[in-house]
């Protein structure tokens, strides 16, 4: 039975809202755009087109009451690839940033370097170049996130056209197989047969079926992590140097500002001191003026007092003189009267 016949049940769902898988990291809701021989295209509510390889598609769920609502305008909807096969569609994604699988240990983002008969090469930021067997890829989509600069990473030269030839090129090298999950193995690829490979890691010998090798890469995850840490340290050193230069400039500027502040403060203190002296001098002058005024006032009061005393003395003397004049007048009158009385007495005696 052909794949087209196997997918005939999906043809009636084109243009409807469906969910791929009942649950799990690969499950997405969206509008079923088209159904091809070995893959389907789904436009999600987040305006992302996801291409699912139908050999892994376990179930498709239709919500008969749901209506698909796009969150973007029609002229901003993403381009939908319409190749007849999943591998041909992958070829159209070459040199683009993509995400393989929606989640899980084997999900990776990177630049799609090349697509061959049964494997592809993905350049990643943290894991270097990872080679995937195409039949293990569950889904793929264009990654619209910020692009990563992978120009510093070394890209191995690959001339193999099929996965078995790729494995032969890795023989006697340290490799990592199935980078994520419990089936991840790293060690020296010692032997290769048509059915399985042998990987030696210290005292352990692993035999892995070729079909179940999802991906493979040169080196170990530890080496990749160490290289990433080295690049991060280099970037951190550059950032630290820039930070130190900025701190030095900031310190010089701070010292300059502090010196200016100190000069300003010293000038302010001198001005305050001068103002204090002037204020003290003014206070002293005011105090002396007040004392002088007080002394003058006191002298004036004393002069007034002396004048008043003199006036009182003059007044008393005038009064005494008046009394004396009156007394003299009275005595004169008494003497005149007495003389007149004596004359009268003499006349009588005669």
TrEMBL record:
Top-rank lineage group of the source organism: Bacteria
Comp. bias (Basic and acidic residues): 220-229, 268-281, 291-304
Renumbered residue ranges of the record's region Disordered: 217-324
Record field: compositional bias (Acidic residues): 231-240
Name under which the protein is recorded: Spore coat protein
Organism: Metabacillus bambusae
